[in-house]
From TrEMBL:
Positions of region (Disordered): 65-85, 589-608
Protein name according to UniProt: Reverse transcriptase domain-containing protein
Source organism: Aspergillus heteromorphus CBS 117.55
Biased composition (Basic and acidic residues): 76-85
Top-level taxon of origin: Eukaryota
């Protein structure tokens, strides 16, 4: 839940005031509406009745009179019932009716049937207006309930206590066990030999002339920047404070109160300058900086995956200083490591082609560009590794700020920004796509494919301070900074959960959670492993997302990589997490027979780690050759989701929990679809989502909207709500429930070929290319040397021998297989187009910065196009248009503020 405090109280006050004002307006509306209805019922003729209704509706809607049958009539531009809007569609209809009514005074061809039709339409408009005002009242009640949920501690019913008692005991046990493990690491000095660490680094970086030279350049860079970046030259200004603050706010490190304070700093230029002055004074005496007297409070927070993490709550100004220094050093190290990557010391994966074969191929193709393949799979691998995976946790600029490794990606359904870089979740998904694509390529070309996955056990809490400082010193960080870093790491802390009498202890190992300096230290240490694996495998890629390692290729290469990683962790005082460590071997069709024959031979001990390869809810099935969803793990989270939903005391908080868990967490952990996964992956994901929803609401044999519909009927007496109310945006008076089925189905339509079929198409295209090249070669040879030329050409087997270096069709297939299919847009119907054109201008104004439902089809994301088309009919039949209520009749600003808050899961 969002934490209680001053913010909900302030919002509650604002909301109460606005709701009271809206209540007065609704009362006035009802009075005017009743007067119009009574006058219409007492009208002396059909024409008079139509005239009365027309005048009443146009005034209630705030439209000008446009009177055609009176002179010198001032337009009523200041309706106190409904804000003046320029709804061209309805206004045009009203103006026409007014014209026709004037005509009917003289022209008998204007029949009673026409008059009755206009009366019926105007009465329907009046009913829609009444319903929209009722909906505004209902919506305000939903917001009031939400605020009340935030302001008061959640009460638990007896039934919920009985059902949740077991859960609570389990949660407390899990939390206590994880805390005990964390404390056993953090408060115990690691058994790491600093001299052994240095000897390891010397053996790694000083083994060859190119690596020695690259190391010298790296050290010079780090040392130079470290000397320049001292207390005498460090200073920041108000512009610096802006990016530092924005970066810190993204870190999820600050409490709600400190977040509000920092945002206030940013809004007030005078206060910002004061903060800058204080920070500069602290930086000027950084060599004497120390933690304040007493200790720094820490708290355990439960994550959605069930793990608990320990967050520090240091002084806000110290937090800003750490963020500034951490970001600066992170950018420095990333730049230096990227420069190292571009030196001859770093090897890159390539096929070893004998020089005579290169020469023969050049003669055969008569193309210099084809000698080593300017565009080929190996070059694509190199570029992808550098752009997407190498040191990507560190920012490339101070404006970019620290990258959240554990972010869930948020909700991109209404994003209007075109991003140049993937976020953390997209990078993880891309790695899964890359793994499956590589398995298809390897098993087709080499007959077998081996993959290893692992991560470091308790990496953040277990990282030895001596390891960090030895590595930093080896890379040239000056002693001035080493002293500060040591002080930063040795934090005096105390758990908030222990109360005022909790014990104070000094951190002796590990790095603080979600700090830019921590990311910098961790990445700097793990860079050494990146280079070690690169050297031992002759350029193969260790794909690393922080301390999450993925390596694949031929088995022999994997054995070398695993031995290197094992040696590294041993020297650095780290250990692999056995629960997340595993190996999978896949074989192509031609290799299966050979494998079955070899299985009868004596098997030596397996040098690779045992265990399965898993990510999220996915397990890599070695028999199927692709990821499958672990349904048992899903079942565990169904129970947890049910518990979290039961703890929500308001409809809006329930929707927030549902969107985070069902709409994003489940869908994200099934991984984003890709061409290499095929349609079967999407079918598996949406079938599982359907099973989750059916299981959650098995008692009522309904889905989420039926469940919420019953809740709303019980609590607020509101019934017969259309489906669109649940899924439409809050700007339209909806709950904005997320529907993950839509995005999966929209991408499914874009997959036209199976992964194996796409790869086979590339091989056939490569053969066709060979025959084209051969035909050209023979013609040129004949033209140059006569019909009996004995110029040596290439056979098909020779031409296709090194496809990862030469085959452009294979490269096209490779790029296609790792691609995420675009969401296919539904077709816009004339009915939706009319309804979009009839949208209130206030709705249009407040949706222009989001790609949600709007009056412009091309600005809507595929998700919202689908949603609008699917649910529009019921919304229009119920409310007369797409929006259930006008924006000014609901506390939209309060809703958006509450939606921005970080949802805190029940522990």
């Amino acid at each position: 839940m969002l934490s209680s405090g001053a913010l909900p109280q302030t919002l509650g006050s604002i909301t109460t005031t606005k709701i009271n004002e809206l209540s007065k307006q609704r009362a006035l509306f009802e009075k005017r509406r009743a007067e119009i209805v009574e006058a219409a019922e007492n009208a002396s003729s059909l024409r008079s009745k139509a005239q009365i209704l027309l005048e009443g509706v146009t005034k209630l809607k705030g439209f000008p009179n446009d009177a055609l049958d009176q002179e010198d009539l001032d337009e009523d531009k200041n309706s106190d019932i409904e804000s003046a809007v320029e709804d061209r569609t309805e206004r045009a209809l009203h103006v026409n009716i007014r014209r026709f009514l004037l005509q009917s005074q003289y022209d008998p061809s204007v029949s009673d049937r026409s008059l009755k039709s206009w009366i019926s339409h105007l009465e329907e408009e009046l009913q829609y207006l009444q319903l929209r005002h009722k909906h505004a009242k209902f919506y305000s009640s939903l917001v009031t309930e939400w605020l009340g949920d935030l302001e008061t501690p959640s009460a638990t019913t007896d039934d919920e206590e009985q059902q949740g008692a077991g859960f609570e005991n389990v949660r407390r046990t899990e939390m206590q066990q994880q805390r005990e493990t964390w404390e056993s690491l953090v408060f115990t000095e690691a058994d790491v030999d600093a001299s052994a660490v240095r000897a390891y680094l010397e053996g790694l970086f000083e083994a060859t002339t190119p690596s020695k030279q690259a190391l010298t350049e790296l050290r010079d860079t780090i040392r130079s920047i470290g000397i320049d970046f001292t207390s005498k030259s460090i200073s920041l200004d108000v512009d610096d404070l802006k990016w530092v603050s924005e970066s810190l706010l993204r870190s999820d490190l600050l409490t709600k109160e400190k977040t509000a304070i920092l945002k206030e700093f940013m809004r007030n230029p005078a206060v910002s300058q004061e903060v800058v002055d204080v920070l500069n004074m602290r930086l000027a005496s950084l060599d004497n900086w120390g933690w304040p007297a007493g200790c720094i409070p820490v708290e355990m927070r439960r994550q959605l995956n069930g793990k608990y993490r320990v967050f520090m709550d240091e002084d806000l100004l110290d937090g800003l200083m750490f963020q500034y220094l951490g970001t600066k050093w992170s950018v420095t190290f990333r730049s230096a490591f990227n420069a190292f990557l571009d030196t001859p010391a770093w090897k890159f994966l390539r096929e070893h082609i004998p020089r005579p074969e290169i020469s023969r191929r050049s003669n055969f193709t008569a193309s210099e560009a084809s000698q080593r393949g300017t565009s080929c799979v190996n070059n694509a691998r190199k570029k992808m590794y550098k752009d997407d995976y190498f040191m990507t946790l560190l920012p490339s600029s101070v404006e970019q700020g620290n990258v959240a490794y554990d972010g869930d990606g948020g909700d991109a359904r209404d994003s209007s920004l075109k991003k140049d870089k993937k976020n953390a979740l997209e990078t993880k998904h891309s790695l899964l796509h890359l793994l499956i694509t590589e398995s298809l390529v390897y098993t087709s070309l080499h007959g077998e494919f081996t993959a290893i996955r692992s991560d470091v056990k308790w990496f953040g809490p277990s990282l030895a301070h001596s390891t960090i400082l030895t590595v930093l010193e080896y890379f040239g960080v000056p002693q001035y900074w080493l002293n500060f870093f040591r002080t930063f790491l040795e934090t005096p802390i105390k758990f908030v959960q222990d109360g005022p009498d909790g014990s104070r202890q000094i951190r002796k190992r590990g790095v603080p959670m979600s700090h830019a300096l921590s990311d910098c230290f961790g990445e700097t240490v793990l860079f050494c492993m990146d280079f070690a694996v690169n050297q031992s495998t002759d350029g193969a890629y260790l794909y690393r997302l922080h301390d999450d390692f993925w390596f694949w290729g031929e088995e022999e290469t994997c054995v070398k990589a695993w031995a290197t990683m094992t040696e590294f962790t041993k020297v650095m005082g780290l250990a692999f997490n056995e629960e997340k460590t595993g190996t999978v071997r896949l074989v192509g069709k031609d290799a299966k027979d050979r494998q079955s024959q070899q299985s009868t031979d004596t098997v030596s001990p397996d040098p690779l780690p045992k265990g399965e390869i898993r990510w999220g809810f996915l397990r890599l099935d070695p028999l199927e050759g692709h990821f499958v969803i672990d349904q048992e793990q899903v079942d565990n989270h169904i129970s947890e989701l049910k518990r979290q939903l039961s703890s929500c005391k308001s409809v809006f908080s329930w929707v927030q929990a549902w969107n985070s868990y069902f709409g994003r967490f489940f869908a994200n952990n099934f991984a984003k679809p890709a061409m290499c996964f095929g349609r079967s992956h999407i079918d598996m994901a949406i079938s599982t989502l359907s099973r989750i929803e059916r299981t959650l609401f098995a008692d009522s044999n309904s889905g989420v909207t039926d469940h919420l519909r019953q809740v709303l009927a019980d609590r607020f007496g509101v019934e017969d709500l259309p489906e669109g109310f649940f899924y439409f945006p809050v700007e339209f008076g909806g709950l904005e429930l997320l529907n993950p089925y839509i995005s999966f189905l929209a991408m499914r339509e874009g997959i036209k070929m199976t992964p194996h079929g796409r790869l086979q198409k590339a091989f056939l295209q490569y053969e066709v290319e060979y025959h084209t090249v051969k035909e050209r070669f023979e013609k040129e040879a004949t033209a140059s040397f006569g019909p009996h030329s004995d110029m040596d050409g290439l056979s098909l087997e020779e031409y296709t021998r090194y496809p990862e270096t030469y085959s452009r069709p294979l490269l096209n297939a490779y790029n296609d297989l790792i691609r995420v299919p675009e969401e296919v847009s539904v077709n816009q119907t004339p009915a939706l187009h009319r309804n979009q054109m009839a949208l209130d201008r206030t709705v249009i104004t407040h949706t222009k910065n989001r790609n949600i439902i709007s009056n412009q089809w091309f600005r809507m994301s595929p998700y919202w196009q689908w949603t609008a088309e699917l649910y529009q009919d019921e919304m229009v039949k119920t409310y007369g248009c797409l929006a259930a209520v006008n924006r000014e009749f609901m506390p939209l600003g309060v809703i958006k503020t509450l939606k921005e808050g970080k949802f805190r899961w029940q522990s």
